[in-house]
């Protein structure tokens, strides 16, 4: 029923450019690389495929990049001893399908005429292929298939003289999402794209300045949160202090709404708001928008827990753990093939049959992507003897792919792009199915959605992409469907 789209504009060399990532950087602390390892550990949920750290000891750069988790790769004395220095950046990465090559693992590093240049990037550039083609024609030889490497070549070929101007010059040519950390001998630069699509926060630990994708990475090392790096801001930290630049003019920001729905850890503060509180608000809104008579509210663990709590508290229906999750398997979403994904769901969740038997259950999850999780879990509740199974989803239907750094399948594989809510309810075999409205989601954030110029990037739910999708348009030969708000 769900068709596969053979065309994938982000497929170079069988390796997708789309990534989910986390970044961490520190300037001004002994054993900086060890802090990076700890910070990346707290960001592991943002990417479990590979991790890397680069340090700078005042003269030399040292890097270690590896497939797999932070633990196991960076809790080893022999590795950490090889990365001395008071400055460091690190990266966790995850890309879904195709070849997973060590050459794509970040930080990427280049020896430039001005010295070493290490970069860690969270986000995705929507014109990387076009830039890469132009650079290729001018003689650039790429070492990876990562969009981030485009930035390195743009910096290397810039006609400006100092590192900061060269970086600014490069960034003015890219489109899309980037929360970027760059380490050179001149200092550590943190930069967020003008729309601020992906998060980036700034903290302090003694004399050291820290940047991270989420505040949980500050918590883990006992650093205090100073502020967010502002959309369009470039912050340079060096031994002479901290300087802020705004090279891109003033553009209304559009931070990613999905960070609040799913991606960020609930104990993070994103855009000044507790992710946990926002998720509970979403659950409460959902209970008002789509009430249901039931005995228990059951979260899909762990992603549905805060929204289910909010649903339960607002509706008065008791919150119960009707599904128990094993913590020894990865996220279902990241299993490479469909068969393994199905198996993954079974491995990961089990029904608490004693609780569920004979009861009317409201299952709460954060999102439906392909529908795999919902199909399995509704059936699991029925097999465990549930009398009714109602599904409530703490985000609007995911109808469009993300081109800004959250991995989503191509549109043809998104259940909500293929069928109506009623069709989806049938497909997952639920007694009822409801999604929070886009307006309700904004209300949960304390905002009202401005249809002309939404305050967030909500393209995965609305198709209103905040940038041109240059690579998609050029590959397809016409305007992408997605540029038209289709719902
Ligand atoms: P699916 O089974 O394909 O419908 O995926 C839905 C499940 O995947 C939900 O339980 C979400 O918590 C989770 N999920 C949603 N988006 C993502 C993502 N970008 N990366 C990893 N997991 C996700």
Write the layout of secondary structure elements.
Layout: E1 11-12, E2 15-16, E3 20-27, H1 32-42, E4 50-56, E5 61-67, H2 77-81, E6 87-94, E7 108-112, E8 115-122, H3 128-137, H4 148-156, H5 163-171, E9 179-184, E10 187-192, E11 201-205, E12 208-212, H6 216-219, E13 224-228, E14 234-238, E15 241-245, H7 258-263, E16 269-270, E17 273-274, H8 275-289, E18 296-299, H9 305-315, E19 323-325, H10 338-348, E20 349-351, H11 353-356, E21 360-365, H12 372-383, E22 388-393, H13 415-418, H14 421-428, E23 432-435, H15 438-444, H16 459-462, H17 470-476
Parallel strand pairs: 18-21, 21-22, 22-23
Antiparallel strand pairs: 1-2, 3-6, 3-12, 4-5, 4-6, 7-8, 8-9, 9-10, 10-14, 11-12, 11-13, 14-15, 16-17, 19-20
The site of adenosine monophosphate (AMP) has 18 residues, from α12.
Give a verbal description of the structure:
This protein is of the alpha+beta class and 487 residues long. It folds into two domains: 18-255, Aminohydrolase, N-terminal nucleophile (Ntn) domain (Glutamine Phosphoribosylpyrophosphate, subunit 1, domain 1), CATH 3.60.20; 276-476, Rossmann fold, CATH 3.40.50. The chain is built from 17 helices and 23 strands. The protein has helices at residues 32-42, 77-81, 128-137, 148-156, 163-171, 216-219, 258-263, 275-289, 305-315, 338-348, 353-356, 372-383, 415-418, 421-428, 438-444, 459-462, 470-476, and strands at residues 11-12, 15-16, 20-27, 50-56, 61-67, 87-94, 108-112, 115-122, 179-184, 187-192, 201-205, 208-212, 224-228, 234-238, 241-245, 269-270, 273-274, 296-299, 323-325, 349-351, 360-365, 388-393, 432-435. Helix 10 packs across helix 12 (372-383). Residues 262, 300, 303, 331, 333, 365-374, 406-408 line the site of adenosine monophosphate.
């Amino acid at each position: 029923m769900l068709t596969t789209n053979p065309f994938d504009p982000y497929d170079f060399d069988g390796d997708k450019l789309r990534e989910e990532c986390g970044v961490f950087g520190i300037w001004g602390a002994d054993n900086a690389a060890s802090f990076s390892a700890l910070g990346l550990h707290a960001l592991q949920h943002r990417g479990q495929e590979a991790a890397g750290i680069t340090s700078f000891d005042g003269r030399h750069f040292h890097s270690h990049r590896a497939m797999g988790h932070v633990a196991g790769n960076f809790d080893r004395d022999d590795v950490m001893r090889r990365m001395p220095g008071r400055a460091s950046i690190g990266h966790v990465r995850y890309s879904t399908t195709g070849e997973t090559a060590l050459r794509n693992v970040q930080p990427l590093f280049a020896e430039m005429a001005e010295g070493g240049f290490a970069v860690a990037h969270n986000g995705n550039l929507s014109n990387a292929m076009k830039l890469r083609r132009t650079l290729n024609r001018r003689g650039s030889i790429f070492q990876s298939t990562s969009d981030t490497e485009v930035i390195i070549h743009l910096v290397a070929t810039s006609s400006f003289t100092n590192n900061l101007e060269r970086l600014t010059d490069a960034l003015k040519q890219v489109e899309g999402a980037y929360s970027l950390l760059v380490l050179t001998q001149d200092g550590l630069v943190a930069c967020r794209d003008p729309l601020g699509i992906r998060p980036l926060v700034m903290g302090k630990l003694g004399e050291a300045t820290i940047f991270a994708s989420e505040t949980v990475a500050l918590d883990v090392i006992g650093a205090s949160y100073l502020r967010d790096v502002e959309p369009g801001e470039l912050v340079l930290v060096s031994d002479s202090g901290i300087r802020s630049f705004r090279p891109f003019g003033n553009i209304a920001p559009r931070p990613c709404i999905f960070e609040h729905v799913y991606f960020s850890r609930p104990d993070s503060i994103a855009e000044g708001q507790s992710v946990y509180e926002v998720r509970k608000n979403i659950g409460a809104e959902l209970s008002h928008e789509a009430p249901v008579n039931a005995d228990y509210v059951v979260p899909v663990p762990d992603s549905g827990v805060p929204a289910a709590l909010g649903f339960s508290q607002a509706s008065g229906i008791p919150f119960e753990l009707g599904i128990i999750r094993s913590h020894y398997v990865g996220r279902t979403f990241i299993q490479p093939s469909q068969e393994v994904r199905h198996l993954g769901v079974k491995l990961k969740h089990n029904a608490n049959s004693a609780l569920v038997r004979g009861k009317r259950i409201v299952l709460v999850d954060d999102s439906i992507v392909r529908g795999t999780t919902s199909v399995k879990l509704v059936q699991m509740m029925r097999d465990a003897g549930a009398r009714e199974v109602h599904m409530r989803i703490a985000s609007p239907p995911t109808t469009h792919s993300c081109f800004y750094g959250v991995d989503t399948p191509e549109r043809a594989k998104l259940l909500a792009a293929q069928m109506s809510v009623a069709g989806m309810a049938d497909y997952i075999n639920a007694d009822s199915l409801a999604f929070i409205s886009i307006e309700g989601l904004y209300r949960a954030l304390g905002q009202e959605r401005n249809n002309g110029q939404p305050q967030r990037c909500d393209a995965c739910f609305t198709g209103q992409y905040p940038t041109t999708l240059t690579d998609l348009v050029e590959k397809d030969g016409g305007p992408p469907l997605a540029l038209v708000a289709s719902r």
